[in-house]
Amino acid sequence: MAFQRETEALGQVSGRLGWDQETMMPRGAAEQRSEEMAAMETVLHARRTDPRVGEWLAAIDGAALDAAGQAQLRLIRRSYERAVKVPARLSVELARVTSRSQGIWAQARADGDFAAFAPTLAEVVSLKREEGAALAAEGDVYDAMLQDYEPGATADQLDAMFGALRPRLVALREAVLAQEKPAALTGEFDDAVQMKLTRKIAETFGYDMTRGRVDKAVHPFSSGSGQDVRITTRTNPADPFNCIYSTIHEVGHGSYEQNIDAAYLLTPLGNGVSMGVHESQSRIYENQLGRSHAFTSFLFGEMKQAFGEMNLADAEAFYRAVNRVDGGFIRTESDEVQYNLHILLRYDLERALIGRSLEVADLEAAWNERFEKDFGYAVDKPSNGVLQDVHWSLGLFGYFPTYTLGNVYAGCLHEALRADVPDLDARLAEGDTSPATTWLREKLQVFGGLREPRATIEHATGAAPSEEPLLAYLEAKFGDIYGL
Asked: Looking at residue 181, what is its pLDDT?
């Protein structure tokens, strides 16, 4: 555990380099940063594959350990067994290339030029295919990649869940879009005022600013764990909801990491157990709580205080504007009804890329064709299409499906939360999120990686995860808003 603690600490340092690259690093430093990241990965890979770890694992009597000790052992063994399958050369090259790729993606996105990014992405995909094959041995390569983000998940399981979601989501979207749309929020909203308000909202949701900070980035994200958990957001003068709800989303991630039992600091249990469970926290904070009728009535008052009078007359109109379903291209700005359809598109495309039935040269055309089929209108520019997400530039294949899995988990948690806290709406209307955030902390967040992902949700809710609570919530909420 002493050896592991040092490895975890070095991993946090590497993560901080990544945070700096996306927030404050000078643009001209990208090449040097890629070498720094590669150097860190050289050290980390050597530690993760150190033969002594295998010897220690073989010598330990797991039956003599308590539940936390057994969980630590399970996670260290899993990490070691995966790490030794990947050659050091490949691990280091992936760190170098993905660090450089991130900056190339950001510039290509700004320029709307997929061709400028395609060669680098092809290099990333080639390396990830090689890594996946090493991890999978003779098994399914994409299933092997999933284990980095959602241990225990398989593509077959996801296909079944997504197959159950798709028809009801499509039917709900079609019914909603056939109705008259609520008025949208319009106007100009100062960036500095947005950032001041969004930091206040972050604290309203329990984010501890003494152990965190809110900065701006091209693509909002959360970074770190324990005593240093940082989040980012972005601003748009015409759309303050982008900033506010990106922040609340990342606060869900950040609060999860901040609220893990301090005894697990710098150990494998000191992080969120999976990206699906992580996403359940960000989505329940953002949507079931942050976009609720009760909380938006409070937020309406905060917005008026920050920006003055708006074109929306009252809290009811504001609630409907927050939850307005409309055409759009950007996943992170999507409403709850259509969000998962964005994820299913990416999931299918990245499986095809890893499975070699799709190549990077054909990716933009495949994206545009699939988007028009799923959403009914054409992508207007690459930054609204294949270039909008940072994930593939970072080599995060297998990550996207955890967003929808997280929504499913959030639906289960929300159902259990409502049953346990009957006066939740009254408290949210006052801007008091503590009944919900305390429930989530005590039922789930404090345990970190103690249990496997599905068991984490089952322990919190008392039931096995199912897509039904999410679908019932969406159909009831948007059925009410749109009079279905």
From this structure: 94
Tokens of 162: 């997504």
Q: How many domains is the chain partitioned into structurally?
A: 2
The verdict on 138 and 216 lying in the same domain is no
CB-neighbour burial class of residue 60 (10 A; exposed 0-12, middle 13-18, buried 19+): middle
Q: Are 210 and 279 members of one domain?
A: yes
* Domain limit, last residue, from 84, 119, 146: 146
Question: Per-residue pLDDT averaged across 147-164, rounded?
Answer: 95
DSSP per-residue codes, 282-340: HHIIIIIITTSHHHHHHHHHHHHHHH---S--SHHHHHHHHT-----S-GGG--HHHHH
Domain residues for 400? 155-481
CATH number at residue 421: 1.10.1370.30
User: For residue range 389-443, what is the model confidence (pLDDT) as tens digits?
Assistant: 999 999 999 999 999 999 999 999 999 999 999 999 999 999 999 999 999 999 9
Question: Is residue 221 located within the same domain as residue 309?
Answer: yes
Q: Decide: residue 264, CB within 10 A, 0-12 exposed, 13-18 middle, 19+ buried.
A: buried
The answer to whether residue 138 scores a pLDDT higher than 90 is: no
Predicted confidence at residue 87, as pLDDT, reads 95
Mean pLDDT of 325-329: 92
Q: Report the alpha-carbon distance of residue 274 to residue 253 in Å, rounded.
A: 11
Q: Are residues 343 and 274 in the same domain?
A: yes
Q: Is the dihedral of CA 233, 291, 396, 42 positive or negative?
A: positive
pLDDT of residue 121: 98
Q: Are residues 93 and 48 in the same domain?
A: yes
Using pLDDT thresholds of 50, 70 and 90, give the confidence band for residue 16. very high
Task: Please say if the pLDDT value at position 479 is more than 90.
Answer: yes
Catalytic residue among 22, 250, 286, 415: 250
Half-sphere exposure of 35 (CA within 13 A, CB side): 3
Residues annotated within a binding site for Zn(2+): 249, 253, 279
Helix (H) or strand (E) holding 437: helix 434-443
Cβ neighbourhood burial of 307 (10 Å; 0-12, 13-18, 19+): middle
Residues 319, 373, single domain; the answer is: yes
Last residue of a domain, one of 93, 112, 146: 146
To the nearest 10°, the Cα dihedral for 224, 254, 455, 389?
-80
Residue 224: its H or E element:
strand 222-225
Residues 192 and 86 in one domain: no
> Identity (one letter) of the amino acid at 274?
S
Q: Are residues 302 and 271 in the same domain?
A: yes
Catalytic site includes residue 452: no
pLDDT digits (tens, 9 = 90+) for 115-137: 999 999 999 999 999 999 999 98
Alpha-carbon distance of 204 to 383, in angstroms, equals 33
